[in-house]
């Protein structure tokens, strides 16, 4: 089974989504913070954006939807892969172990000079040096527009093999994740969507259930 999650699964933990009312990008142009060009132009602004989200993450915890997916992993073991677009660590804190962060991780720093990854320690608004190579090339270890998401080979393999594809709390506006449902459909794999509102690809799913993740996901898992 492959479960794709998006910002909607963490919304009830207190982390804003991107495109909903009151979302992170309400009144902001994502291209100013979520592209390599934005980072090159104004790294301090981008660091501030991620510093704030790191602080917010430290103040919240996983919710009933994350916990339900951790229970599902207990039951299915290696037969479940959670592919998350989220950069938070709420799946892991709920107990999930087989989680692929296709858009990177908020608590990781990536050195573009030597390719090392480090735990993110403290606010980095002032550009710290990489502990491995000493250059000041540490950036948020996240995938911006125009960059290639992580683990695509593994994801494609899992989608190819799976008996059920489930999408939870994502608007279906960002590719390649938005195309996973079409990939599953082309293979004849059953598909299910659990989302508050209709997503962009809602008509592609065999079944769509509407409601908050903390209600829908435990009800589906249990
Ligand atoms: C609830 C809820 C509750 C709320 N319960 N539900 C033209 C056509 C096609 C593609 C492109 C194109 N032009 C450019 C592209 C490619 C581009 C793209 O998709 N652009 C679109 C804007 C069109 N994509 C890329 O550039 C990607 N790379 C790429 O394609 O490389 C090429 C390649 C691919 C594969 C193999 C080889 C090469 C990279 C995309 C990177 C996205 N990065 C971000 C930022 C990450 C760091 C960060 O977090 O800051 O990822 S953007 C942002 O959007 C973030 C998210 O992961 C992503 C998706 O958002 P998500 O999770 O869906 O959130 P929302 O807010 O949109 O939706 C929330 C949903 O939850 C809503 O539906 C609510 O109803 C629901 N909800 N409360 C249940 N309580």
From TrEMBL:
Q: What keywords appear on the UniProt entry?
A: Cytoplasm, Metal-binding, NAD, Transferase, Zinc
Q: Which residues form the Deacetylase sirtuin-type domain?
A: 1-222
What Enzyme Commission number(s) appear in the record?
Answer: 2.3.1.286
Enzyme class per UniProt: transferase
Q: Name one GO molecular function term.
A: histone deacetylase activity, NAD-dependent
Location of this chain's protein in the cell: Cytoplasm
Where, by residue number, does Zn(2+) bind? 111, 114, 130, 133
Where does this protein hold NAD(+)? Answer: 6-25, 85-88, 169-171, 195-197, 213
Q: Where does substrate bind?
A: 50, 53
Q: What is this protein called?
A: NAD-dependent protein deacylase
> What organism is listed for this UniProt entry?
Nocardioides euryhalodurans
Gene from which this protein is expressed: cobB
């Amino acid at each position: 089974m492959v479960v794709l999650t998006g910002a909607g699964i963490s919304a009830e933990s207190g982390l804003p989504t991107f495109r909903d009312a009151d979302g992170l990008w309400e009144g902001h142009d994502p291209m100013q913070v979520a592209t390599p060009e934005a980072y090159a132009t104004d790294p301090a602004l981008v660091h501030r954006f991620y510093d704030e989200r790191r602080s917010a993450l430290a103040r919240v915890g996983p919710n009933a939807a994350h916990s339900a997916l951790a229970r599902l992993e207990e039951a299915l073991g290696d037969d479940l892969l959670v592919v998350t677009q989220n950069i938070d660590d709420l799946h892991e804190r709920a107990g999930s172990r087989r989680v692929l962060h296709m858009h990177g991780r908020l608590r990781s720093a990536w050195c573009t000079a030597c390719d090392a990854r480090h735990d993110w320690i403290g606010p980095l608004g002032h550009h710290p040096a990489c502990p491995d190579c000493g250059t000041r090339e540490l950036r948020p270890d996240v995938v911006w527009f125009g960059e290639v998401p992580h683990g695509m080979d593994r994801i494609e393999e899992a989608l190819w093999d799976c008996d059920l594809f489930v999408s939870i709390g994502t608007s279906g506006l960002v590719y390649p994740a938005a195309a996973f449902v079409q990939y599953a459909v082309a293979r004849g794999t059953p598909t299910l969507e659990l989302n508050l509102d209709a997503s962009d690809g809602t008509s592609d799913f065999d079944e769509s259930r509407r409601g908050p993740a903390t209600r829908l996901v435990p009800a589906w898992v249990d």
